[in-house]
Amino acid sequence: MALKFKSLHPAFAAEVEGADLRAPLPPGQAAEIEAAMDRFAVLVFPGQDIDDDQQMAFGLNYGLMEAETATVDVHKRRLKHAQMNDISNLDESGQLLAADDRRRMFNLGNQLWHSDSSFKAIPAKYSLLHGRVVTPEGGETEFADMRAAWDALPPRQQEKLRDLVCEHSLLFSRAQLGFAEFTEEERAKFAPVPQRLVRRHPGSDRLSLYLASHIGRIQGWMVPEALALIRDLMEHATQREFVYSHAWRRQDLVMWDNRCTMHRGRPFEDRQFPRDMRRVTLMDSRPTLEQAA
């Protein structure tokens, strides 16, 4: 069956019809999907009844998978694959996380606007999130179009931002929520890394802001001045005309390009309803400072 891409609102997201991710993709289909990713940046694949292995196999069409997830208490893993991110409210026995569980407190950071793995030296390319168990209400994922946000900036501000380098860390984003209970090993693992503030998206050759709640500094700037600028840019980039909100249905798979979008999860009654979401994350080719400006 030929693929069809139905544009959603705003136009940087689309729903894909005709895809079956349970088996290897037919010849040419992986390239067709990647071309659609370059055009849209967010693709929704409804009704994909897949398991962990099938989800990972689909992701491997588009590059190398991240070697490990970035979380706390990794010894309490629930999923069998160390490369799969557990975006759920369930503990290792499948029960709801306790209200004071470190993992629950840490995961609240997913409700901040961010780009996956911007806190890693080589950040993320694509993320693929699959809804195994979804909640009856709440828990939407919102996406912001960072290419359109860049295009909407005045030329004088674009020139000011073009060569700036920011430092990203999970320590910075979790501090916004008052979470500072990191071990020394975790602090070393989450040490800040530099990333360009403005990137050139290779598939579309468009410029894009590269923002995230993980930003805590701008190199060469005083911290208060830097954070004031980042806050202003975040408010600009998440205006409603730049945002698509995805209401999850069971077995939806949503794929997005972290190089030109931000996203955040919305709250839900996590002490009442179980939610099982699993994410595969693909690495970019190299650090942003080594990529074309």
Provide the helix percentage: 10-25%
Main-sheet strand order equals 1-2-3-13-5-15-4
Q: Would you tell me the structural class of the helices and strands?
A: alpha+beta
Q: What order do the helices and strands follow?
A: EEHEHEHEEHHEHHEEEEHEEEE
The largest sheet is: 7 strands, mixed
Oligomer: single chain
Rg over C-alpha atoms, rounded to the nearest angstrom: 18 Å
Number of helices: 8
CATH fold title? Double-stranded beta-helix
Beta-strand content bin = 15-25%
Distance between the termini: 39 Å
Describe this structure in words.
The chain has 293 residues and is an alpha+beta fold. The chain contains 8 helices and 15 strands. It has a single domain, classed as Clavaminate synthase-like (Double-stranded beta-helix). 22% of the residues lie in helices and 25% in strands. Strands 1-2-3-13-5-15-4 form a 7-stranded mixed beta sheet, covered by helices on one side.
Quick recap of the structure?
The strands form 4 sheets. This protein has a 7-stranded mixed β-sheet, covered by helices on one side. A 3-stranded antiparallel β-sheet has the order 12-6-14. A 3-stranded antiparallel β-sheet has the order 8-7-11. Helices cover 22% and strands 25% of the residues.
